Amino acid sequence: MNESNSPRLDRQDLGKIALVSLRAARMIMESGGRAQVIAKSAQTVACGLGAEFLGLRIGYASLAISLGDDANMITRMVVVGRHGVNHRLDQAVRRVVQRITTERMTPGEVEVELDRIAQTTPKHPPLFVAAATGLACAGFGRLLGVDWLAFVPILLASTLGQHARHYLLGKQMNPCVAAAMVAFGCALISSQGAKLAGSDTVNLAMIASCLLLVPGVPATNAQTDIMDGHPTMGSARAVSVLMIMIFATAGIWLAGAILGVHP
Amino acid sequence: MIEAVEHLAHQAFFGGVAAAGFGILFNFGTRDLLWCFAAGAIALGLRTLGLDAGWSLEAASFVAAACLSVCVAGFLHPRLDPAPDMIALTGCIPMVPGAFLAQAILGLFALTSPNPDKEITTVVLSVEYLLRVAFTICAIGTGLAVPLHILKLMNFRGSAAE
Questions:
Q1: What is the ipTM of this complex?
Q2: Residue-wise pLDDT tens digits, A225-235
Q3: Which residue in A153, A189, A182 sits closest to A244, CA to CA?
């Protein structure tokens, strides 16, 4: 992809290209992208901006890229923030990456474009997200066999739980600790609510209200990453999924122990 | 017969509700949320048919994920531009056996109590749940990935046309 008549790049140019490539890759990673997509994005940006792509190291908490041309070679690294899932941001970054292959853009223009989408990509309001997540958990409850009497308590508990999780993660709390606290609160509220409503499925309601904490996308991405030849990233994702689930289960267990309910 | 259809409709509807709810959590756009609902309904509907036919959870989940992946990647991808695989993945989220995993870990916690009750049963149940979780997640991941790999739709819009 490197054009032979493209101007020679000095180390400073390569540094700028490396950083903007890493920025695009990091945004996709933080939005829940698979390792293969992250690698391809970084490569597309780097090659589209005229550098020779030598390699990308994808770690769970950092990314490093090596670029070069005939005369120079550089390596740059960035730290990756909290992994989440943000579909619209992921898609917006991919569109920018696509544009680089068809339009002549400079690293500065790509940086401005990435800044713009980071600020302007729409998000659903947190309360709406919380209510939708509550409804999803109540739906999960019905799939698990929870009776109708426990439906509203699960809905309420999960809505409050998602709102609390959003708040705690916004305060930079450790995701595992946040998962334990949210699971404890959800299990407590849903079990008490289901008991008051006269439900026969209090134990299932406790678990259903905490299903918002199950990291489903990272769990499937872990397997796909390993299949795609990124076993380190896949294993790290699988371990992080397991850790979140252990902490969440500890929260459910504690709520059950306090209330004398066996989940 | 009517009961079976009602059960199928119930599972498909709540599968769609769960997938759409998680679609909002994953910040899908409004138009894509309808596709998330449809994907969740298809996945849970197919899994329920499989379970009702006597298949194991793992086999039913694999077939449901693979069929959804073929539907999305093979037929719907021009409408689901630019990442149909994310719609298929969100549709499969209601099949992730999070409740089994929680019950397996709770069983292991119970074994560490000073006087565990029915240890052997608890160990067997916990291991069974853990294996089912592992195999079901693998079944979903494999069911989603294989058709997408075959149809070369794994990455970008551009590469889909390669």
A1: 0.90
A2: 998 899 999 99
A3: A182
